[in-house]
Amino acid sequence: MPSIDALISGVFKGEKSALGRAITIIESTTHENREKANHILEACLAHKKNSIRIGITGVPGVGKSTFIEAFGSMLTAKGKKVAVLAVDPSSTLSKGSILGDKTRMVELTKDPNAFIRPSPSNASLGGVTRQTRETIMLCEAAGFDTILVETVGVGQSEIAVQAMVDFFLVLKLPGAGDDLQGIKRGIIEMADALVINKADGATKKAAQIAETDFKRALHLYPPKENGWVTQVMSCSALNHEGIGAIWKMIQEYIKKSQDNRTFELKRKKQRENWLSEIIESELKRDFYANKSIREEFKKLSAMVAQNKISSFAAAKKLLQIHHKESS
Amino acid sequence: MPSIDALISGVFKGEKSALGRAITIIESTTHENREKANHILEACLAHKKNSIRIGITGVPGVGKSTFIEAFGSMLTAKGKKVAVLAVDPSSTLSKGSILGDKTRMVELTKDPNAFIRPSPSNASLGGVTRQTRETIMLCEAAGFDTILVETVGVGQSEIAVQAMVDFFLVLKLPGAGDDLQGIKRGIIEMADALVINKADGATKKAAQIAETDFKRALHLYPPKENGWVTQVMSCSALNHEGIGAIWKMIQEYIKKSQDNRTFELKRKKQRENWLSEIIESELKRDFYANKSIREEFKKLSAMVAQNKISSFAAAKKLLQIHHKESS
Questions:
Q1: Which of A71, A174, A294, B266 is packed most tightly, with the most Cβ within 10 A?
Q2: Structural contact between residues A44 and A10, judged by C-beta atoms closer than 8 angstroms
Q3: Do B209 and B313 belong to one domain?
Q4: Hey, is the C-beta of B325 within 8 angstroms of any chain A C-beta?
């Protein structure tokens, strides 16, 4: 095991093995490794480089791996250095993690300009989120200029990924629902682009219909705060068709948002929000870490549900225990 | 000043003066009054009665006061006892509180079966939210069976109100935007009904067009978890037209959700969520109540924004100060 300084210098040189080891330290929860992790992170922060962070989501079966394989390979062919990360808090349990099975991304896995890292095998979303955010910083310090963060199409992890990327792309299946019926609540608000995949073979026609339907439905939506209107496109990741157009669209987004300064503003807000989020989640963690609080919470919460005590009185009791125990 | 027990018994008898005084105690922040408030609340919780809680929102000018006047008067004519509350954290500053000016609700103000209480003049949304939730309990214990909670059409206070009511009604102006353009993000997800007001005089035609447009746009949305589909209606609060149909629709909602048990389930979840919310907001309040934390937070937050320190390192520093100071 090289010294931390040697490891950092390896990361700065873009050595994938050093990057991988540094991420392992970041993912560790031992006190000693957290100290090292903070040292690495501060060094990487000072060494920061320009990058674009793209979030990609979609339900299982939508072809995320195929899309990332096609999209990432196109980017490395253009001279980009691509890091592929994942936020999948379920991966420990399900073992069905998208990136766990690297055989699905044959090209990218052997591509010298691509770096693939599966979701940290950590049960809590908060932990996975923190580690992925930190991993982004490490990858950027290692010279990766395009970061793809993949997530499974389930609620909270999508919100977490959207809060760490510049551009959020939602992959859709053709005909997976009529019009907006197939669209989850809130996803349109989050998406910078909806891309219907599998515009090929037997589903080509359905993809075209879905594209038209979504375009019609989405034009009713107001533009986002930064002036961007959610784009609707279709592609065949399998046949590498439409992938170039998607990249062009993302570049246009980046250019526009850099020109009107919303790009840096969004990142600045994300960093500030992270600070508050970390503090709040740590305060909560501290609170519920106490065994007698947890036991009392369980009892009181059941009483609240049955309307035997008010939420206010129950909260007051729990906070009194907390103050007594922490002083 | 009567004793607390006399006050509670006055509330139970439905005496408006006792109810008003009890609410004033609830709204007070002195330690002594908080003790009394908890005593009153526990008594009211035990005395709880059946009620329907309806949230009403809409931008200034949409005619909320006129609507509540017409809607509330219709309800009292049907033998209902109606309490009108408000969540308007801006009322202290703007003095433009919807309910502050009771002259806008001439009929209801003198109606013996109506009770009107303006938003507590408390600057923070959290404080206003807690007080309004507690006031609902008091009004219900006093026999008010229909609680209308009004809020101004701005973000967080709408979310707060939606989390304390059974039914959430969004008032819209006719022609205040084409199709969904005039609709704020997330509002469709929250609304159980969209009601276009001012379907009268020069705006009658525009209201009809808006109703058709919203209906067309909304049918693309999937039903809510409880099976309810957001309804679109129009009315003229000024001419008392369409008000009865709205009440019929709300009754249908209540019946359906009571039949499939989602009514009590929603309330149960609201109570449980309140418990967690109160704990989390108190933990945050405790944290930021510390002056040296506040000063350090300001400094570190600016550094985070400028990317001079990571969000993680900054949070760690603040939490260290917190732990040192609270032990």
A1: A71
A2: no
A3: no
A4: no
Nearest to A74 by CA among A254, A250, A230: A250
Are A293 and A326 spatial neighbours (Cβ–Cβ below 8 Å)? Answer: no
What the block records as the tokens of B106 is 């001439």
Count the domains in chain B. Answer: 3
Q: Determine the 3-state secondary structure of B175 from DSSP.
A: coil
- Inform me whether the C-beta atom of residue A216 falls under 8 Å from chain B C-beta atoms: no
- Judged by CB atoms closer than 8 Å, whether chains meet at A275 and B315 is answered as yes
Write out pLDDT tens, residues B76-97.
999 999 999 988 776 544 444 4
Tell whether B254 and B228 lie within a shared domain. yes
Closest CB to A311 among B183, B275, B305: B275
Across the interface, of B181, B310, B312, the residue whose CB is closest to A220 is: B181
pLDDT under 50: residue ranges of chain B: 92-98, 100, 178-179, 181
pLDDT tens digits, residue range B114-160? 999 988 776 677 778 888 999 999 999 999 999 999 987 666 788 88
A45-60 pLDDT tens trace: 888 788 999 999 987 7
B50 reaches A (C-beta below 8 A): no
Point out the residue among B41, B280, B315 whose CB comes nearest to the CB of A278.
B315
Q: Is the pTM of this model over 0.95?
A: no
Q: Which of A132, A278, A286, A296 to mutate to test the interface with B (most CBs of B within 10 A)?
A: A278
Instruction: Answer whether residue A266 is part of any domain.
Output: no
Domain range for residue A288? 275-326
Task: State the Cα–Cα distance between residues A221 and A227, nearest whole angstrom.
Answer: 12
